[in-house]
Amino acid sequence: MKNIFRTQLNIRNIKKIIAVLISIAVLISVFVIYERTSNEHENNEINDCESCQTDEPILNESDTVSESPSINKDQVITALKAEVIPESFLIKMDFASQAPEGNWDEPWQNACEEASIIMVHHYLSKSALNKSIMKNEITEMVNWQIANWGGHKDLTSEETVKLVEKFYNYRSEVIYDYNIETIKSYISKGIPVIIPADGKKLGNPNFRDGGPEYHMLVIKGYDNDEFITNDPGTRLGEGYKYKYQTILNSIKNPTGGPKSIFLLTD
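The line above is the sequence of Peptidase C39-like domain-containing protein; the predicted structure tokens follow.
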């Protein structure tokens, strides 16, 4: 009887153990399935996040970000204004003809180069100019040329600049690429423009015999369709006006070389 009871007890214990093991196995299975599901979900979120990334570079702490230069409104306005040429402009400068005493014999007949640069010199130096001063300064320049260049002759832009360098301390520029707007631009900045010209093409009725074959004059202003000059070739040359195209057509190099205009600046 005892043996039967013990056998039954053992069977019950074994069943309990099996039930516990089955429960443990079920719990383990549920845990494993849960872990797999969680990992798959996290991986999907990571993939979704990566697909949303932009192409912008990731900066390290050592990287520096350069800032765009700030734009100064006043500088922009100044630059824009610098490109705008006024409709009219006039430089105030004194005048005296190349024959200050009305004598058109030599050397006065061919003293237009000297007279032109002397007028610009007195403008730049802010000094007065009259007939007496013009006569004395032309005489000095002519005498220097005779002593150093062997005579008094027509001068190209380049040669006139060399004469300027002997007497004055100005910066000079000979310009070969020019047009109406180029000349107006310099004038509007207060820079007179000196023009070597064919006097006969200027068509000035105050010239003798239709004008000289070679001449030089100063452009000091402009209006809607004319340049305003100080033309030393006539006593009526102060503020004398020539059409834009007349000036351009008259520009000449007495040697037949490249045509040019030139400037003096302080």
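Note on the example: Strands lie at 89-90, 171-175, 193-197, 215-222, 226-230, 238-243, 261-265. The CA atoms of residues 47 and 53 lie 10 Å apart.
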